Amino acid sequence: MAKAKKAAKKAAPKKAVKKAAPKKAAPKKAAPKKAAPKKAAKKAAPKKVAKKKSARKPNAAFMKALTPSAALGAVIGTKGVPRTEAVKKIWDYIKKNKLQDPKNKRMINADDKLKVVFGGKAQVSMFDMAKHLAKNLS
Q1: How many helices (H) and strands (E) does the chain have?
Q2: Which end of the chain is more exposed for a tag (fewer CB within 10 A), N or C?
Q3: Which of 2-16, 62-76, 99-113, 120-134 has the lowest mean pLDDT?
């Protein structure tokens, strides 16, 4: 009889363990439901930011016509052009005459016309080119 009581006692904790496992699983299911609305709220905020960016207007100062110097005028023309167009025309001239260094594409090899614009330098970095252009536009 004592063995039967011990067996009954051992069986009872096993049932309790099985019942406890589903209870633990239920709160885990509830937690993702709470997290889902938070994610939806975060997604709504960037949409508002995108609307603000579309309302942005271009700066008219970039479209202001600037007069090139005589040295720069020999390359891009003497007619007044915006800074953006001047850079575009310089690049057209560089590509047309194949003045970009084939080994290091960041460097521009100056020909006789560009050497005057670049302050007498034979080779200029494409990043320094804007600095030299600014000196020749007014």
Answers
A1: 5, 2
A2: N
A3: 2-16
